[in-house]
Amino acid sequence: MIHLPKKNGISYYGSDIYKCWGAIKQRCNNSNNPRYKNYGGKGIKICEHWSKFENFLVDMGDRPKDKVLLRLDNNDNYYKENCRWGTTKELARRRSTTIFIKYKGKKYCLKDLSKKIKVSPPTIKKRYKLGGDLTKKIPRKFPRKLLELDEFVFCKERDINIKNLRKFGCTLHHIGTLYGLTRERIRQIINNK
After folding, report:
1. What b/e sequence results for 20-52 when a residue is b if at least 16 CB atoms lie within 10 Å of its CB, and e otherwise?
2. How far does CA 53 lie from the centroid of its chain?
3. pLDDT given at position 100
4. Which of 58, 103, 108, 132 is the most exposed, fewest CB within 10 Å of its CB?
5. What is the 3-state secondary structure (H, E, C) of 69-95?
6. Cβ atoms of residues 140 and 147 within 8 Å
7. What distance in Å separates the CA atoms of residue 93 and residue 115, rounded to the nearest whole number?
């Protein structure tokens, strides 16, 4: 039988830190775990030293309240030098799906940039999703602060793209949704006004 360390005379079995350690082992080692594909399936492992809970506990200490385990390099394994305790907000910002945008020479995640320039994340994201090239397709009616983005530069290609979309049968409503323009403004662009 394994004797787990005790905290104030109470076993760590079932504690948050024990569950955290167990979850790491499961997603790295158990191919039946639903999250295995994002961890063990990508070659991410838990170090041999941490195969014993006691070693994990000594290296990381007790889990602070409202903290989660973060890997400093998300492409590297779980081991002492690559892990630290952080907030769930920090964890969310470290996901591979997080969108980062450069603004005035500094890198921001989408939500932080949205708060800074007071433009909704969906509006910024829509521009990003138009191919990932943030230098094109910015409508004239777009919020002024977003036009200040380093990677967002207004260019005439937008007008050309609008004309081509209309030629291929896109509705004014659809084009307006893509570019954030009114139908009247789209008509003006098509008619070169």
Report:
1. bbeebbbbbeeeebeebeebbeeebbbbeebee
2. 30
3. 75
4. 132
5. EEECCCCCCECHHHEEEECHHHHHHCC
6. no
7. 14
Residue 113 near residue 101, CB atoms below 8 Å: yes
Task: Look at the chain and count its residues.
Answer: 193
Placement of tokens 């954030």 in the chain: 180
Structure tokens of 5? 């360390």
Q: pTM of this prediction?
A: 0.55
Output phi, psi for 71, to 5 deg.
-95, 135
Q: Who contacts 147 (Cβ-Cβ below 8 Å, separation ≥6)?
A: 138, 154
Beta bridge partners of 6: 11
- Fill in the DSSP letter of residue 105: T
Give percent of the chain with pLDDT exceeding 90: 29
User: What residue type is assigned to position 120 of the chain?
Assistant: S
Token pair of 98, please? 């997080």
Between strands 68-71 and 83-86, the pairing is: antiparallel
Q: Which residue is associated with the tokens 């041999």?
A: 48
* Distance between CA atoms of residues 58 and 55, nearest Å: 5
Q: What's the whole-number average pLDDT of the chain?
A: 77
In the chain the beta strands, taken as DSSP E runs, fall at 6-7, 10-11, 68-71, 83-86, 100-103, 106-109
